[in-house]
Amino acid sequence: MPEGPSILILKEKVQQFKGKTVVEATCNNRSLDVSLLTDKPIIDFKSWGKHFLICFPDLTARIHMMMFGTYRINSHTAKPPRLGLRFSDDTELNFYACQLQLITEPLDDIYDWQADVMSDEWDSRKAIKKMKAEPELLACDALMDQHIFSGVGNIIKNEALFNARIHPESLIAALPPKKLREMIKEAVKYAFQFLEQKKAGTLKRNWQAYHKKECPRDHVPFIRKDTGRSHRTSFYCEVCMKLYE
To answer: Which domain does 31 fall in, by range?
Structure first.
């Protein structure tokens, strides 16, 4: 599943379409009325965590890549796209295996931009307040909660917890304030490292915990376990990552 940094890369790549008018729109599962997009100019592209937003004058097309979503710029596959946009200069933008939704409300009424870890508006104090409202929340679940850490996925979760030396099943209420702030700092820090490494093609080779078998600090086997309410896989070291209960 693409995480926040990958959506930012997508947003950078599609800037060539800003200001262009859609002359043809298609949807292979009729999940949205594409006639509402035809003959409309794209006025902006935005992102909120894992949500990619194509902004038109009176509505927004929201795209969520889910687990296996992909896109093509000025090319297409043999399979019809979930959403295909064509422009008068023969350029095209295609999305596959994604979830679509049309938004007619103002985006500021829907999205908390301060929850996006890669936004200039990110507010760590607000994240702390949200976590403290759920004292039984586990660290692994807190980081994966898009209302608290929008854009954080399983890769960022694992790397941030390893860097902060926090066991994924630690209770948020049991974390010392300094450690809670460290977890937040590492999540945001790694999100931007993810972005740069993804652009450079070096993301996987720099993983310290995600899909690794041995702790690089203690040289003992990592525990691999589906943790928390999301049951997403965590990779952790029982020697250097402390369990706060």
So the answer is: 4-110
